[in-house]
Amino acid sequence: MLFYLTVILACQLIGELITVASGLPIPGPVIGMVLLLAGLLIKGGIPDELATVGDAFLTNLSLLFVPAGVGVMLHITLIGEEGLAITLALIGSTLATIAVTAVVMRLLSRTADAADSEAE
């Protein structure tokens, strides 16, 4: 279990190093998740112990929001000053996420339909 926790943290660290070294505007943990996904695809699945570590993280996910809540309270005046920009960014990113999800679902459903028609 400790090994897989180390793997997760190492992927995050490598993602951070890639972000800093390359100057990409992508958060390091996101790159780390992509690296972890690539490793799991190469390995051919999710080991049971890694799933256990992931479940433990999800069980205690609410604790990870405490620092964010403290940050919000600390910078509440800044949030008030930039409220319109924050609101527009949230609405825009939500709409973009919905659009990308729709496009991906359409592409995946076409692929599934093509596979089903070939199987028949």
TrEMBL record:
UniProt entry tagged with the keyword Iron-sulfur: no
Keywords: Cell membrane, Hydrolase, Membrane, Transmembrane, Transmembrane helix
Predominant location: membrane
Gene Ontology CC entries for this record: plasma membrane
Pfam hit, one: LrgA
Domain of life assignment: Bacteria
One Gene Ontology molecular-function label: hydrolase activity
Subcellular location: Cell membrane
Ranges that cross the membrane: 27-46, 58-78, 84-108
Presence of keyword Ribonucleoprotein: no
InterPro entries: LrgA/CidA
Membrane topology: Multi-pass membrane protein
PANTHER family (alphabetical): HOLIN-LIKE PROTEIN CIDA, HOLIN-LIKE PROTEIN CIDA-RELATED
Name of the protein: Putative effector of murein hydrolase LrgA
